[in-house]
Design a protein that fits this description.
It contains nine helices and 14 strands. It has helices spanning about 30-40, 70-80, 95-105, 135-145, 195-205, 245, 285-290, 295-300, 345-355; strands at about 25-30, 45-50, 120-125, 155, 165-170, 185, 215-220, 235-240, 255-260, 270, 275, 300-305, 310-315, 320. The longest helix is centred in the first third of the chain and has 13 residues, at about 95-105. It is α/β, with parallel strands linked by helices. A hairpin with a 2-residue loop joins β10 and β11. An eight-stranded mixed sheet has the order 4-3-2-1-9-12-8-7, sandwiched between helices. The chain has a two-stranded parallel ribbon with strand order 5-6. It has a two-stranded antiparallel sheet with strand order 10-11. It has one domain (about 25-355).
Length: about 350
């Protein structure tokens, strides 16, 4: 049985015998948008990605003329191009975004794009998703196809009548077609955890998941990876599930699991910029402990890294729902955003965590 979290302390993220050329990443919603960004930024490290209800790279910069002020333009793009376009034709243009990705790589802000050819991708959209329209997720598939991902490596799932959520087999989770927090929905009886399908598609031959994980769930101090800068909109703590075999020295792979908006361990509604602790929703660490990643990782020498974003709504950073940055709120300058590059504060932080887990 997994070792319980010690509520009295947060340790330093440990070093393990991890192969940093065999990393993978997946995420839901804002975590899915960040999955695409992290994948392109460091594609030499990632063998695959799982994208649940997420749009293509730099989607929020689709139409800069949406507003005179750059920051407002990116927010409007995020809402009305990248999440719910009025018609599919008003959604993101994958050809234009591919051109932007190629220029970003030419500017050496992300890894060379040739690494993507062999990547294994799982892309999912629920047909009842009312938050990120399925037409947007379909452009994510087209984006990767245009970048040369081999057709046999790309699994696109779009026929499930699911709402906006990661899907589980937990009886206590929302109905399958729900579009509400905590954005964890229940599949019909006899189904499998969605996280298992993601990991099996990326890594192909895996052992069956453990019935009860026997490793350790680690709480670590995230602040060293973003220097405690509030601009990062990241929580004090992150989490990692480590199988017992890895604790004993086995070589491992790392999977980064990125939660969506309102899913961080300490999510709380912000009212006028202040946390409403009295009415704090009881979401807790459900994404970390109940979405199935740990069970599959336990039998396959995979460390699951759970970085945590945090809601901030002040004069400097406007991210009240605790989303990962895919429209530029963490950039030093709205006129010159860096949220999509290796220089982005959140991407640098997660990359630093991976380097630490790899013993560096």
């Amino acid at each position: 049985m997994a070792t319980m979290i010690d509520p009295t302390r947060a340790e330093q993220l440990p070093r393990f015998n991890a192969d940093l050329t065999q990393c993978s990443v997946s995420g839901l919603s804002s975590g899915a948008f960040m999955t695409v960004q992290l994948h392109l930024a460091h594609s030499s490290m990632f063998v695959g990605a799982g994208i649940i209800a997420g749009g293509p790279y730099r989607c929020a910069e689709s139409f800069r003329a949406a507003s005179f002020i750059a920051e407002d333009a990116y927010v409007q793009n995020a809402l009305f191009v990248c999440m719910n376009p009025l018609i599919p034709q008003a959604g993101p243009n994958p050809e234009r975004l591919v051109a932007m990705a190629r220029q970003t790589a030419a500017d050496r802000l992300i890894d060379p794009l040739h690494h993507l050819a062999d990547a294994r991708l799982y892309i999912f959209t629920g047909s009842e998703d009312k938050v990120v329209n399925s037409s947007v997720v379909e452009t994510t598939r087209r984006f990767y196809e245009l970048l040369g991902v081999r057709p046999g490596n790309l699994m696109f799932v779009g026929g499930v009548p699911a709402g906006h959520a990661i899907l589980t087999t937990n009886l206590e989770d929302n109905p399958l077609d729900a579009n509400r927090p905590p954005y964890i929905n229940r599949l019909p009886a006899g189904s499998r955890m969605q996280s298992w399908d993601i990991l099996e598609h990326i890594y192909e031959k895996l052992n069956p998941p453990a019935e009860r994980p026997g490793g350790r769930l680690i709480r670590f101090d995230q602040r060293e990876f973003f220097d405690g800068d509030s601009r990062a909109s990241m929580s004090d703590f992150g989490y990692a599930y480590v199988p017992q075999s890895v604790l004993e020295g086995a070589q491992c792979r790392i999977h980064v699991a990125l939660h969506g908006c309102k899913q961080g361990y300490n999510y709380v509604d912000l009212v006028s910029g202040r946390p409403d602790r009295t009415n704090m929703p009881p979401y807790g660490n459900r994404y970390i402990t109940t979405t199935g990643y740990n069970e599959m990782a336990d039998r396959n020498d995979i460390v699951v890294l759970y970085p945590q974003a945090e809601g901030i709504d002040d004069g400097r950073t406007q991210n009240p729902e605790g989303c990962w940055d895919w429209w530029g709120y963490s950039s030093p300058s709205a006129d010159q955003p860096d949220y999509y590059s290796q220089h982005a504060i959140q991407i640098r932080a997660i990359h630093g965590m991976l380097q630490r887990l790899g013993g560096r």
